[in-house]
Write a structure and sequence with these properties.
This protein has an 8-stranded mixed β-sheet with strand order 2-3-1-4-5-6-7-8, sandwiched between helices. It has 6 helices and 8 strands; from the N terminus they run H-H-E-H-E-E-E-H-E-E-E-H-H-E. It is an alpha/beta fold. Helix 2 runs parallel beside helix 3. The chain has a single domain, classed as Response regulator (Rossmann fold, 3-Layer(aba) Sandwich), CATH 3.40.50.2300.
């Protein structure tokens, strides 16, 4: 009965693949997934900013900063994703990759700041810069929105943007009502 053995082998292979797919991801894989999801949400958050057109630089570009602490490779990878997006509300994107330490030295405030590497001790400085300049600080990392980041990622039965209304208000950032209806809110 060679057909029976073949069916068993196929079922076994399918079972092994299912187990591998359902196995918990490592912390690094989960972080990578959150960053990739965040990179898809970040342009939508920028587009929801009612004042985004006023944040265009003199060169006609919308400048965003990808921020890292030690992993420049992760930040460059993230920057590549945003460069592929190319535009937000028909405004061309200019993507700068900087360390947390160099974030404050950018010439002109960025319209948005994407945190590509988790650095809880550097988060307050990034949030202060965003609040002072009206730049949206987006963190894909769990807990950062509760600590003051303007926006991030909510993972539940669906993946949604997560916003911190108090931080947005402090920075003078107003998001479109429709976007806020879709987003989860950190209270």
């Amino acid at each position: 009965m060679p057909g029976r053995g073949k069916r068993f082998a196929i079922r076994l292979a399918a079972w092994v693949m299912a187990v591998l797919c359902l196995a918990p991801a490592s912390a690094d894989e989960q972080t990578d997934r959150r960053i990739l999801v965040g990179l898809k949400l970040f342009p939508a958050v920028l587009a929801a900013d009612t004042q985004i057109t006023k944040k265009t630089a003199a060169d006609g570009m919308l400048h965003v900063a990808i921020v890292y602490k030690e992993r420049a490779d992760v930040a460059e990878h993230a920057a590549g994703h945003l460069r592929k997006a190319g535009r937000v509300r028909d405004i061309p994107l200019a993507v700068d990759v900087v360390t947390y330490a160099d974030l404050a030295t950018l010439t002109g405030p960025p319209a948005g700041v994407f945190l590509a590497e988790w650095a809880p001790q550097a988060l307050p400085g990034a949030v202060r810069l965003g609040t002072r300049t009206g730049s949206i600080v987006f963190s894909p990392f769990r807990g950062d929105v509760a600590l003051g980041a303007h926006a991030g990622v909510f993972v539940g039965d669906r993946i949604l943007p997560l916003v911190n209304p108090a931080s947005l208000k402090a920075a003078g950032i107003e998001l479109k009502p429709f976007f806020l209806e879709v987003a989860r809110t950190h209270e």
